[in-house]
Amino acid sequence: MILQSSIFKSAPHSDPEYGPWFKGHSSIQSSLAAICQSWATYLKAYAKETERLFGEPELPWMLKEGPVVSTLLASISRRYRNSVSVLELPVKKRGLVKAGNRTGHGLCDAWISVPELRKFGGDFNLYLEAKILRELNSTQRLRGHLSGKYGIDKLFCDYQTSSGKRIRLTSPYTRKSGRVHDHFVVGLMVVPIHAASADLPAIKKQLAEVFGQRKRIQVRNANARVTRRLPQFPTVALILVDQDGRHPGMIASFTVLGSTSELLAKSALATDSLNDAP
User: Fold this and answer.
1) Which of 10, 82, 162, 223 could form a disulfide with 172 if both were Cys (CB 3.0 to 4.6 A apart)?
2) Cα dihedral 228→13→186→139 (10° resolution)
3) What are the residue ranges spanned by the domains of the chain?
4) pLDDT tens, 6-43?
5) pLDDT grade for 268, boundaries at 50, 70 and 90
6) 211 — phi, psi (to 5°)?
């Protein structure tokens, strides 16, 4: 198995009426792209070693969220020696309280700090919420699947579980006891796909269409829809495919969904919730 990787970055917001939500849009994407490169290197080595050991490569993206996220953290630790991370961090989620969970206790898939990727005078810190679309996709069905209720809609609605009644730009973990620090909240969406190296241009074109659109999303536990201008949310994706397409590949997109107020752009500070955004 020969894995080939490519990095996709969403285009910056071009409408002057609606600025970016986060400071340093391109700088955020550069940091996420560096993480993607490290992950690609690790996954290629992982597939090669498991193929040597087991006769067939083991592909974490065909398993569950735990193996996927654990390889991501391992790749960051290997590349950035000063980084620290933890899996399944206990957090309080406002949306769980609203749903009847008295304590609101939940888990964040990972917390990551990478001092080497310093932004705005501080470290690059993030809480990660990961989701795997378990259905194996083809390039022909990719755009529709990503744009559907199990794609971007689910990414934002799962983030709402942490935020509460509304999907807020301000991170729900801002005041977590003993962990007050600047950070981003990033949604990781992993999509297994049947594709080969020749399909990479078509995949990138569809990602550009999906993450360049204005999207209407159903709000969880409410009879309402809200608009998302997706270019306002920095997105970077790792595309990893088997060169000849014999084994399933993956698309792993990282989308910044929220942050502490210090990392929000002026255009975002005007609204406390995206439910109030146009």
Assistant:
1) 162
2) 80
3) 3-276
4) 999 998 776 666 677 888 888 999 999 999 999 999 99
5) low
6) -90, 10
**Both tokens assigned to 19:** 């600025």
Confirm if 93 and 162 have CB atoms less than 8 A apart: yes
Going from the C-alpha of 65 to that of each of 202, 225, 232, 250, 265, the distances in angstroms are 26, 28, 27, 13, 31
pLDDT, tens only, 239-265: 999 999 999 999 999 999 999 888 988
What amino acid is encoded at 54 in this protein?
F
* Residue 197 in this model has a pLDDT that exceeds 50: yes
- Token pair for residue 94? 């406002």
